[in-house]
Structures are given as structure tokens and as C-alpha cells.
Amino acid sequence: MKEQLQSMKIKAIDEINSSMDLKSLDEIRVAYLGKKGELTKISKGMKDLTTEERPVVGKLVNEVRTEIETTLANKLEELKLKKKMMKLESEKIDVTMPSKKVIVGKKHPITKVYDRIKDIFMGLGFCVASGPEIDTVFNNFDALNAPKNHPSRDKSDTFYINDNLVLRTQTSTVQIRTMMNEKPPIKIIAPGRCFRFDEVDATHSPMFHQIEGLVVGENVTMSELKGTLELFAKEFFGENTKTKFRPHNFPFTEPSVEVDVTCFKCNGEGCSMCKGEGFIEILGAGMVHPNVLRNCGIDPEKYSGFAFGMGVDRITMLKYEIDDIRLLFENDMRFLNQF
Ligand code: PHE
Known about the structure:
Elements: H1 2-18, H2 22-33, H3 38-44, H4 53-90, H5 109-123, E1 127-128, E2 134-136, H6 137-142, E3 165-167, H7 172-181, E4 186-195, E5 207-217, H8 222-237, E6 243-250, E7 253-262, E8 279-288, H9 290-295, E9 304-311, H10 312-320, H11 333-336
Parallel strand pairs: 1-4
Antiparallel strand pairs: 2-3, 4-5, 5-9, 6-7, 7-8, 8-9
The protein binds phenylalanine.
């Protein structure tokens, strides 16, 4: 029995030492020390021994067990370490490898122009207001005093969702929404996208950007309109910019004007940019029509106001000398990276 134990021990230790992974090591453990393992089987035979032999063999069984257990534990440590090293090796990072290029985005030129315009008007005490791109025919036309037969109402000019809803053709809808919901004094600018049924060409896009301004209060006058817009023009286009107010007609303002600024490329001399005029048209404006105030529940006897609206795409094109509006909407990085 002693020899049996000895040879089993040698075999077990040999197997343990040549085991390559944790799974086979555990199988060896079960094969020798488990309930039906070889050592257990041998110790069961002890009952047939004499009383003298039994304690001697019992001691030997315990020694063999301890030795196998120690060898197992050592091997277990070794295999675990090996596994960890292999994992570390496989996760090694070569810090000298060239990194992926990080592409940092830039603001779109339209966003840059919006930001600058907003900045100037916020410096003058205006708040930024917004409204939905789909609005009612009432907010887009009726409340703005557009006659029932105004050509801009036609389905060939405006995108209708149904008889009552349109894609707004101007940010003037935000004037209406603000006056309906707030009491004067009101001083807002409203940036946003607008939509008109235009064929796409170098200067037209069915989607474009406007920014609207509205001031309503007691004793608001045309001279404040002029002062505000003159100041804006100087801030935006340069200190030497001159403005020209030409009479015009909008249904929602009376009197109405169109505002030109001296060409910032030739300083008014006349060049290809201003088509020899020396001036460039930048916006429409006027004193809010009493009917518009009335439509929004504001008493025109007590309050007056002015409004203005400008095309941001056009101003962006002028500022950066972009000759085709389509470039602004194609998202070509080669174009956008220039700004
Ligand atoms: N809504 C006008 C347009 O789209 C611009 C404008 C706004 C004119 C406010 C006067 C006052 O042409």
C-alpha cells in the first residue's frame, strides 16, 4: 500500500507539473483528491490493515495529500500569473503608433453671421425669441395685414401644409407670436429658417435664413428705427459705413423702408460687388402697422413700434464674397473649412 501511495504521488505531481491550463489542473485535482479520486480510493482500503499498520499508513496518506495539495496550489498560482501576463501582453499599446487624426468642427458661416448679429442687438438690449418653422396662415399672412389677394399667398410662392398651415415665409410670424403673448415694452430679435417656393439658382434657395427685429413701446419713433439700424450697420460692416433709407412697401409696416449700406468692398466708389451702385441693399424695415398691433391686442393709440428683417444668407454671401448660395447648403468641407 505504501508503494501504491508513493507511485500515485509521483504520478500526480508529474501530471500537475505538466498541466498547461487551469481547467486541466482542476481535472487533476478531482481525479486524485475528489470523492471518487485515487487517494480517496486508497484510503478506503485502510480498513483492511492491522492496528499497527493503520496509523503509519494514515500518516503517509496525510503527507501525500498535503504534498499534492501544495503542488496544486503552487501550480495554480503559476498558471494564474501566466494567464495574467498573456492578457497584459495581448493588451499592450504601442504609444509610438501614429494617432487617428481628430477633426475639429467649425461654425458654419451662416452661424457665424447669426452670432455676430445677435451679439450686436443683444448689446442694444434685445432678447432672442423663436417660433416654429410651420406656422398658421393667420400668423404668416392675416395678422401681418397681408391683403387676401397678396401674391405671396399664392400656392406658387408659399409651401402649404394644408389650408391653415404653411412653412413660414418670413420670421415676421415671431412678431405676431410675441405680441400675442407679451405686453409692451417688447424688444426682440428672432433668427430662423424660412421657406419660399423658389427655383434653386445662384441667389435663390427654397430654404433660407432671416433675422427679424421688433420693438414696441410708448413713443417708439422712426428716428429710433434709423438710429438702431445705422448703429448696427456700422458695427457689422465697419465704422465708415453709411446707410440709405429708401421708401418701400410692406403690408405690415407703415411707413416702410428698404435699407442700403455703402459697399464695404469699394467704400461707395462702385465696383462689381455693388454692381457699380456704391450701395448694397441689406434689409427691410418700417413702423409696425396699426392694424398689426390691433390684430395682436395692442392699442395703437397708446403704443407704437418698429420692425426690421434681413436675409442672413445674403449678408453672409456679401460678407465672405460667396457667389453661389448653394455652397452654403452643400456641406462640402473643402468649402466650409475656408471660414
Ligand atoms: N418680412 C420681410 C421680408 O421677408 C422683412 C421685413 C421685416 C420688413 C420686418 C419690414 C419689417 O421681406
